[in-house]
Design goal:
The complex is a heterodimer. By secondary structure, chain A is mainly α. In chain A, 64% of the residues lie in helices and 5% in strands. Chain A is built from 19 helices and seven strands. In chain A, strands 1-6-7 form a three-stranded antiparallel sheet. A two-stranded antiparallel sheet of chain A has the order 2-3. Chain A has a two-stranded antiparallel ribbon with strand order 4-5. By secondary structure, chain B is an alpha/beta fold. Chain B is globular. Classes of the chains: A mainly alpha, B alpha/beta. Chain B: Belongs to the universal stress protein A family.
Chain lengths: 520, 295
């Protein structure tokens, strides 16, 4: 392992140590005592009594507020809409700063994220005290920490696998690479699959003149649509999994994914064939010599299997709960997070530095995600609470407007295309819960959503994942792929060029087809 | 061993040019070509969060590096030396090693990182990583250094670095090659100190007689090294020390008045090398002298 690699390890170890110290093992609660009280339940069931063992801080002077399942006040119905302003500013910062002041953003994006988080958290804590503190701890411990740990482990493990050798990019070979990437994305994450294949894909096509459309379709398929089948594929689905959606439920998206992927691959093939014949029509003789393909660092597939196993296990077992800072989380969830960290560490220790360097692996992209998402998660607390309040909250007009699956698909999607798709998914996931099962604890409502309102959850899941391809800011790997392609000499369209030339022309028609087939 | 091609990597820190000038004294020992290298760290210019690559910055950084290198070459104005430039973007360590291989460099020169406003001795982890992984000798240059010695804060400027090298040997193959490397600097060298430290761990549980036998054996080997050096026409001075290896080498280098420490990079234990640092790396990290590590 490289010495520079110590920093993220030390960072992770610190998180683990701090969380371990903060945990209160004495407050272990048997799972059978927890049946009615989900760890993720900060929903709006005022009929439930305060949980006796939570130990989190009660708000003072809030007698008029509703009480949630854990005895903390339910802020959803009373929070004003303007409390979502920091969230909007956070997302606007992500959208605009890179375009308007890229250098400032590059050096200070962490501070910007911290600033917006503070503008939400400080007044929130001042006004709602203990309840606000609970909400912040809850979103950090139950959502942010596992989310980052999963991304980190997938990123680390996939960054240790390198495809060497020479591929020559003919239309058929390119379609094969894109298909492989689409299939892998659900199992190693869109970020992992994109990082694994983008360089071989670019190398394979370095003799071609027009490569821009290839990278764009790579973003469509590998960095987005392909990740829709499991919670490992894309962060929004993992957040859904954390909130009780079973691991393999997302396989329901398979027909939708096959439709979009099939359409895009067919279009890609003809587009590629057109350009291929227009340019040279064949691989140049001096380019035809091939070095056999070889996967290096394949032992990382074991760790990838370990990650999948850990995620699966945590969804299948119930080992009781542990109270950390008043937030109840399943022991199996902590164990899963520990295993994910272990898989990442094993990968770092056992993979030669040269493989990572040949992969152009750096920690920057994951650090970027960690910094930005802490701001996103904290600032979105009011939005989530208001949406969860359903018709009782100040976003009742939106909740009332989003009714049919087609609405969920397009609205979740449209927002995911320009905002981040993980919080967007969570927002509409909660909207669906609030609309269909108002006042019901999340642990009870989610299984009902998965079975009774299956079309709604399909629409939210597909919308959040698919539409991430609509713009560079829709999903984290989109920009990483763009950067790598530009670095390798492939010109890429501008932010709006991407949308006008590719999203509107290729993606939206494919989504329209999906809408007519599945959501009408 | 000969040092004909040199890869001088710089991040354009203060005194980098002075450092280059001291290294160029190797011309007397056969240096012919100098590759001036600068790596723009990819993280500084690419992966701007949601912003793509900073193309204008890349262009500017490349141009700045080129202009500086041109200026250096012009200032040195040595027609007997061939200067080339390489300015690349990527992971610095990997690029340095890649460039050294491509240029068939006989030695890589890297600088240390300045820790504070004061010029304290500090070696960045990136430099240590190059030391660990290079298959060619690596010189860690330290032109001006502030350091603590016996409670005093001292300043040292290393200008005549090749004059009095101290060869720290553990009799391993890399140590053997370190001797060859030191001899290759012959025209520049006034005297070579050869030292061996009987480490505390080795002597801790030994009886006095066994320790004496070890001492005798070490002195014999030191004499052999010195004879070889003297046979090459250079003065040699043996020093046997006992105690903590790193501290003993540092103390010896000061007592002897060394200008450079030359060591073989033994790489005994993988875990220790990477996490705790081997003796050679600790010396490179802590010494106020330039350190030449031979793989």
């Amino acid at each position: 392992m490289s010495t520079p690699g110590r920093r993220p390890i030390v960072f992770l170890l610190w998180i683990v140590v701090i969380l371990f110290i903060l945990a209160q093992p004495a407050v272990l609660v048997a799972s059978d005592q927890q049946q009615n009280i989900s760890i993720d339940d900060f929903a709006v069931d005022s009929s439930l009594e305060s949980h006796p063992a939570t130990g989190h801080m009660e708000p003072e002077g809030e007698a008029t507020l509703h009480e949630g399942a854990h005895g903390h006040a339910d802020l959803g119905p009373i929070l004003p809409l303007w409390s979502c302003v920091p969230f909007a500013c956070m997302l606007l910062s992500i959208a605009l700063f890179p375009l308007l002041a890229p250098e400032f953003w590059h050096h200070h994006f962490g501070k910007v994220s911290g600033f917006w988080a503070a503008t939400m958290a400080v007044p929130f804590l001042f006004v709602y005290k203990g309840t606000a503190m609970y909400e912040i701890f809850h979103i950090l411990l139950a959502d942010y920490v596992p989310f980052i740990i999963l991304l980190w482990s997938l990123y680390t493990v996939s960054g240790g696998i390198l495809l060497k050798g020479s591929l020559r990019g003919t239309p058929l070979v390119n379609v094969a690479i894109l298909t492989l990437g689409t299939l892998l994305a659900s199992w190693m994450g869109t970020t992992g699959a994109a990082m694994l294949l983008i360089r071989p894909f670019l190398r394979a096509n370095n003799y071609r003149k027009n490569r821009t459309f290839m990278v764009v379709f790579f973003i469509f398929l590998v960095a987005n649509v392909g990740g829709s089948l499991t919670p490992l594929g894309d962060p929004p689905l993992f957040l859904g999994f954390l909130h009780g959606v079973s691991f393999f439920w997302t396989m329901h998206i398979l027909p939708h994914m096959l439709t979009v992927s099939g359409l895009l691959l067919v279009v890609y093939f003809f587009l590629d064939r057109y350009h291929f014949h227009r340019e040279a029509g064949r691989v140049p003789a001096d380019e035809a010599e091939k070095t056999p393909l070889k996967l290096v660092g394949i032992h990382n597939f074991i760790f990838l299997g370990g990650i999948i196993g850990a995620v699966l296990i945590s969804g299948m077992v119930d080992w009781g709960h542990v109270n950390v800072l008043g937030v109840h989380r399943g022991i199996q969830d902590w164990v899963r997070d520990g295993l994910l960290i272990a898989m990442g560490l094993f990968s770092m220790v056992t993979t030669s530095l040269e493989i990572r360097e040949d992969n152009d692996f750096t920690w920057f992209p994951i650090i970027e995600v960690a910094y930005l998402f802490v701001g996103i998660f904290i600032t979105m607390i009011p939005c989530l609470l208001i949406l969860k309040a359903g018709a009782h909250g100040h976003l009742a007009f939106l909740i009332n407007a989003v009714k049919a699956p087609v609405h969920y698909f397009w609205i979740t999607g449209a927002l995911s295309g320009f905002l981040d798709n993980a919080p967007t998914y969570l927002t509409f996931f909660n909207t669906a819960l609030g609309s269909h099962y108002p006042g019901m604890a999340e642990a009870q409502a989610v299984p009902l959503l998965m079975t009774e309102k299956i079309l709604y959850l399909e629409a939210i899941s597909a919308g959040a994942v698919f539409f991430g391809a609509c713009s560079y800011i829709g999903n984290a790997p989109n920009f990483m792929v763009r950067s790598i392609a530009e670095e390798a000499g492939t010109p890429m369209p501008s932010f709006f060029g991407y949308i006008l030339k590719y999203t509107l022309v290729f993606l939206l028609p494919a989504f329209a087809v999906v809408t007519f087939i599945f959501f009408f | 061993m000969r040092f004909e091609t040199l890869l001088f990597h710089t991040r354009f820190r203060e005194l980098a040019f002075n450092s280059l000038k001291t290294v160029l004294q190797l011309k007397t020992a056969g240096l012919k070509k100098v590759v001036l290298a600068h790596v723009i760290p990819r993280d500084d210019v690419a992966f701007v969060p949601y912003g793509g690559t900073l193309k204008a910055d890349i262009k500017r950084l490349r141009e700045e590096a080129r202009v500086t290198f041109d200026d250096w070459i012009q200032t040195i104005a040595d027609s007997q030396l061939i200067f080339t430039q390489r300015i690349e973007i990527g992971a610095p360590n990997a690029k340095i090693l890649e460039m050294a291989e491509a240029e068939k460099a006989d030695m890589i020169v890297v600088g240390r990182k300045k820790r504070t406003l004061m010029e304290k001795v500090y070696v960045g982890t990136h430099v240590l990583d190059v030391l660990r992984r290079s298959t060619v000798p690596v010189l860690m240059s330290k032109y001006m250094v502030q350091y603590e010695w016996q409670g005093e804060s001292l300043m040292r400027t290393n200008e005549q670095i090749w004059k009095r090298p101290l060869l720290a040997s553990d009799w391993s193959d890399p140590s053997r090659r370190a001797l060859d490397a030191t001899l290759a600097m012959k025209p520049l060298v006034e005297k070579i100190g050869v030292t061996h430290v009987l480490g505390r761990r080795r002597t801790k549980n030994l009886e006095a007689a066994a320790v004496q036998r070890l001492e005798a054996e070490s002195e014999r080997r030191l004499r052999d090294y010195c004879q070889e050096i003297e046979a090459a026409g250079i003065q040699a001075e043996p020093h046997l020390a006992m105690g903590r290896t790193v501290e003993a080498i540092l103390k010896m280098s000061r007592d002897y008045g060394a200008t450079l420490i030359v060591m073989g990079r033994t790489g005994k234990d993988w875990f220790q090398e990477y996490w705790l640092g081997g003796v050679s790396h600790r010396v490179a990290e802590l010494s106020e002298l330039p350190v030449l590590l031979i793989p």
